[in-house]
Queue: 2 jobs
Job 1
Amino acid sequence: MDEKLKAFYELYERRKSVREFSDAAISAEVLSRLLMTLNRAPSAANRQPWHFIVVEKKGREGLNALLTKEGFRNAPVIIAACADPHLAWVRRTDKVNYSWVDAAIAVTEMIGAATAEGVGSCWIAAIDAEAVKAVLGIPAHIEVVGLIALGYPLEELKKENKARKPLTEIVHYGKW
Ligand SMILES: Cc1cc2nc3c(=O)[nH]c(=O)nc-3n(C[C@H](O)[C@H](O)[C@H](O)COP(=O)(O)O)c2cc1C
């Protein structure tokens, strides 16, 4: 495998959920690169049924009060990933609305880029979504998919062996 390809795959080994952040800020330049990946993400029928609210640490008392882990309150940036189900593509055969899938894909793209930048991240789904909506002024018809904490990890991101199911348990060839 050539070096560039190796470096790319190593990203997946370095990424982990980061719940303790240093006080270092994320520069405007880095943040704008991360936001670009959200905008570049694929979505069903290219509907882009999403909104992302960037909440920096200063003045974040209201949102911080809703977070269950102290480490998240120290993250320099928290992004609220929101879905607009009214804009999303809906699968005709079973009426499944893809807004959450699309929003999650965009976040995943951003998390990959964050890892490459050395920025740690953690999805936070364990929230009171209605309370988050109230604090951030999110319109009633919009759904909060999750919060993403971003910041430089206290411990450097390095290759880790994660507890995962064996591939043979989850990958099926040909049929289930
Ligand atoms: C959709 C989603 C929601 C999550 N919600 C939370 C959360 O509310 N709080 C938390 O501490 N971690 C949360 N996590 C992080 C997971 O616990 C973590 O991804 C999992 O344990 C695997 O560990 P790793 O990310 O370090 O590989 C969430 C992850 C995902 C993908």
Job 2
Amino acid sequence: MNPWYTEYGDLLRSIFPDFKVQKISVNAGFSCPNRDGTISTGGCIYCNNRSFSPSYCDPSSSITEQITRGKEFFGRKYPRMKYLAYFQSYTSTFTTATDRLVSLWREALSVPDVVGLVIGTRPDCFPQKLVEILAEINRTTPVFVEFGVETSHDETLRIINRGHSWQDSVDAVTRSAEAGLHTGIHLIAGLPGESDDDVLTTVSRAVELLISSLKMHQLQVIRDTTLHRLISEKKISCDLYTPDRYLDLCVKIIRMTPRSIALERFVSSSPADLLVAPRWNLKNYQFVNLLHNRLKQLSKP
Ligand code: SF4
């Protein structure tokens, strides 16, 4: 047991005590309202969905095929593994065709060894009807909902062209958690104009919500994004984290997060061909090792 914080694996073990589980990303082919013109056409300024879509996740294949490929990928190492179908790409609840969406969820759950659903979405794409359907599924099969919240500061949300407010996040997270869904949020540290204190203010507001998990990462500048262009044209500046400064921030985040909330991730490592900056050359596990070493040093008498 990690002495400093609750790991996401601990949360999963409390829900699935008899086996290991692994998320398998699937792409259901939905778009995003922040890209298709419903909210805007530009998307969030840092977004390039290629940077977080695994290769086995191809929307031209059925959900069953995608999960089967994911199982082959992970099953080689852990043959007894079970899986959570992770509807991750773009905005996976952005559709008016609710029946189709529900049938995709059911299809995922019908694949052998799939034991739960993870739904990644925006706070403004979570109608009450979907909450009720997911709550019904959750009665027999665990459902996790992950909201891209990113920051609690509305001015930053405007700068990054996020297209929703902090209050939208509070409303969606509260409705999800009150319906009994395992509710997590995702935040980004180092957004344009934000200081460490701004990030910590967001974390302090986030941990007041009824969430069971928190996922963080440092801002990364990805090739061919609006953020990349704005920085190149010197129209925006970002104080990108060094590993050392980000370690300090993570220690503070850990200290303010109660044990009831699992910390799922601290860093993101985008593919090298897409990443412009910051180039840390650290894998996720290497950053976590550095973080644990720092926590160990700090806890020495
Ligand atoms: S980050 Fe998510 S919400 Fe923002 S544009 Fe990309 S897919 Fe849409």
